[in-house]
Design a protein that fits this description.
Layout (H helix, E strand, L loop, with lengths): L1 H5 L6 E4 L27 H8 L3 E4 L2 H8 L10 H4 L23
Parallel strand pairs: 1-2
C-alpha cells in the first residue's frame, strides 16, 4: 500500500477474490497455525487499517463457490474460510505430527 501511496494514489481500495482466510489449512496450504493469519480474530476494518487500505472487501463463501460454476455439493473444502474441517484436526498439529509413528506397536 505504501508504494501505491508513494506513487501518488490518494486512496487505496482493496478487493479480495475469496473470503477472509482465517483458519489453518491442514490439507495442502502451508499454514499450520491460525494465529499466523491476519484475518484471524480481526474485523475487516481492523485488517484494512493494519495494511493501510482505505477500504477492504472480500468475496463471500457462497460467491466464491458460485464463481467456480460448480455445484456446492462438488466437495469443496472450505475449512480455511469457515473453520468447518471435513475430518477432525489435532489441536497441536504441525509438520511433525505424523512422524512419531502410529503407536500401535
Amino acid at each position: 500500500m505504501s508504494l501505491l501511496r508513494e506513487a501518488g494514489a490518494r486512496e487505496v481500495h482493496l478487493r479480495i477474490a475469496s473470503p477472509p482466510y482465517q483458519n489453518a489449512c491442514h490439507y495442502g496450504i502451508d499454514t499450520s497455525k491460525s494465529t499466523d493469519l491476519i484475518a484471524r480474530g480481526r474485523t475487516v476494518r481492523e485488517i484494512a487499517d493494519a495494511i493501510g487500505a482505505d477500504s477492504l472487501a472480500y468475496l463471500s463463501v457462497e460467491g466464491m463457490v458460485k464463481a467456480t460454476g460448480l455445484s456446492p455439493e462438488a466437495g469443496f473444502c472450505l475449512a480455511c474460510f469457515t473453520g468447518d474441517y471435513p475430518v477432525p484436526v489435532p489441536e497441536e498439529a504441525d509438520k511433525y505430527a505424523l512422524e512419531g509413528g502410529c503407536g500401535c506397536d
